[in-house]
Design brief:
Blueprint: E1 5-14, E2 21-26, E3 37-38, E4 41-43, H1 50-62, E5 65-78, E6 82-95, E7 104-110, H2 122-141, H3 146-149, H4 153-167
Parallel strand pairs: 1-6
Antiparallel strand pairs: 1-4, 2-3, 2-7, 5-6
Pfam families: NUDIX (PF00293)
GO molecular function: hydrolase activity
Domain Nudix hydrolase: 5-133
């Protein structure tokens, strides 16, 4: 049996002032996830911190300068010989005009709840499905709690997880 090697990738939920998230469409000629939509980001180089890698990757892919806020999740992707672990962070654009690299052929700013309408990379589809389930569960549990509605959708599940952790 051949064991998979784990590789680290970093991604960002970049949100604009309306709460929309930037997604990028991979080139149809890409080796991984051709024609699929994904979050900006990529591999961490040896000796590079994951926040440095994410800032570098986003700039290479979009020419946007960003700042990072929080870790919001993780997802896995099984490739031929590598199992990629995607650390997903939240962030905002500081500066720049969006210009795509050759790695991508399209972009869109979409609300989190509309992500399932796009053909997503499998790792992102898994993350979105998990978050949507947690959001639905939290909305049902906290139907009349106005403070939870003020948080960005992907942070709701983190708040709920931390609240549950503190209770135990």
């Amino acid at each position: 049996m051949i064991n998979n090697v784990f590789g680290l990738a970093v991604r960002v939920l970049l949100s604009d002032e309306e709460g929309k998230i930037l997604i990028l469409k991979r080139s149809t000629h890409s080796k991984t996830n051709p024609g699929k939509w994904e979050l900006p980001g990529g591999k961490v180089d040896q000796g590079e911190s994951f926040d440095q890698a994410l800032i570098r990757e986003v700039f290479e892919e979009t020419k946007l300068k960003i700042y990072l806020e929080h870790v919001v999740g993780v997802s896995e992707q099984n490739l031929h010989l590598i199992r990629a672990v995607h650390i997903i962070m939240s962030g905002k654009v500081m500066d720049g005009e969006l210009t795509l690299s050759k790695e991508h052929e399209g972009y869109a700013w979409v609300y989190f709840e509309n992500l399932p309408e796009y053909p997503l990379a499998d790792w992102l589809q898994y993350f979105v499905n998990q978050q949507m389930q947690l959001i639905k569960q939290e909305q049902a549990d906290n139907n009349d709690n106005p403070s939870s509605k003020s948080l960005e959708p992907w942070l709701n599940s983190l708040k709920d997880s931390l609240d549950k952790f503190r209770k135990n």
